[in-house]
Amino acid sequence: MPSQSTTRPAKRLPSARSIIKAVDALAAIDERRLSKRQRFSIESNDATAEDLDSVSPVMDRYIAAKGVEVVHALTNFSASELNTLWANIKPFVTKNWSVGSGRKCPVTGKDMLFMTLVTLKHAGTWDILSASFDEGAATFSNRINQFIRVLHPYLVRKYIDEQGMKTAPAVSFGEKKTYFSKKHGLYGHKVEGSVAPNDLAINVTNCAVGSTSDFEMFKANLGFHSTHLEKQPSDTNVSANDALRDKFPSQ
């Protein structure tokens, strides 16, 4: 028996009137939505909103207020030097600072470096330092100390241990060992620097190979020390009560 084909009825198309009505309704909904949006500002009321995407909003604020020279004034590092240092430690800081479970530090890693360098240069009390960054003294000191504890092993590895190996001369062991300072654990040369009580360096000797003992360097520089230990005309009336006054009356 031949199969009977079934004819599906044609889908009823919307009329022009229903289309106009639907478009007008959707347009009205869109206008109401836009009207509601305009009641709210798209600008953030937070004064620091412009810094939200910055990797160092705290340091950027200092630069904006006092110029880029403020970085060197506060840290002894120029802005470019600090950026270079940050580029070197960023991978380590990213993996080890403010990670894991628990509350995260709201200060970025680069800002922590900036704040740590400021602290190390100026020292003083935690109250003064923390106020400079609008932080509580206890919170600020804990952050700085924790950041240093995290960063210290990496700095020792990268800037002391690795550099010590790089300075080993590429010569025979017998020649190389003359450059090794057992006291410092490094290869190279060393000098003796003389520092006055006011922290000013007043003399630096010529460099010597690392194996030269401190005593030998001091003996070679004995003339300088003896000259500067001599009493000046203004010191003649100063009484000396130490045990060596008879042996060294002019000093």
TrEMBL record:
Region called Disordered, residue ranges: 231-251
Top-level division of the source organism's lineage: Eukaryota
Protein name (record): DDE Tnp4 domain-containing protein
Organism listed in the record: Aphanomyces astaci (Crayfish plague agent)
